[in-house]
Design brief:
It is built from four helices and four strands, in the order E-E-E-E-H-H-H-H. It is an alpha+beta fold. A hairpin with a 6-residue loop joins strand 1 (18-20) and strand 2 (27-29). Bound molecules: zinc ion.
């Protein structure tokens, strides 16, 4: 009589961390991801100023990373948009901002830049109640 082989039990459950492709939305193991910074004037970090104006994109492979880089390469890079994003960051996090001077100190922007950023923001905001995501379902 043959002895039945016992199945080996893994000592620890292997945890596979998943990532999400910014282009196709596919999930894939973290080890397979490709990630790069691309220029994007709408992107500011809550944690580090050095990456303001850069967006970290994640792709499922080099082909989709190339497409993402091309999309952001074609997107207009606007100083006023970057300034507006910095202002929004300061107005939505941390202690309240009480004056334009204080906002200037916290953003590193001069008053004329703040005014240009606010003008840019006001001319580019979406109408209330009409949310546009920019992405279709198919
Ligand atoms: Zn993908």
């Amino acid at each position: 009589m043959r002895k039945r082989k016992r199945r080996r039990q893994p000592e620890k459950a292997e945890v596979i961390r998943l990532e999400l492709c910014d282009l196709c939305g596919a999930t894939f193991p973290e080890d397979d991801m490709v990630r790069r910074y691309v220029p994007d004037s709408s992107s500011v970090s809550r944690h580090n100023d050095w990456s303001d104006g850069l967006r970290l994109v994640t792709a499922c492979g080099p082909d989709h990373l190339d497409v993402l880089r091309e999309i952001y390469r074609r997107r207009p890079y606007t100083e006023e948009e970057l300034w507006a994003a910095k202002i929004t960051r300061e107005l939505t996090h941390g202690p309240p901002v009480l004056s334009v001077e204080e906002l200037g100190c916290r953003t590193g922007l001069y008053e004329p830049e703040i005014r240009r950023a606010i003008a840019w923001h006001n001319s580019h905001r979406e109408p209330a109640g009409d949310t546009v995501t920019g992405e279709g379902d198919g």
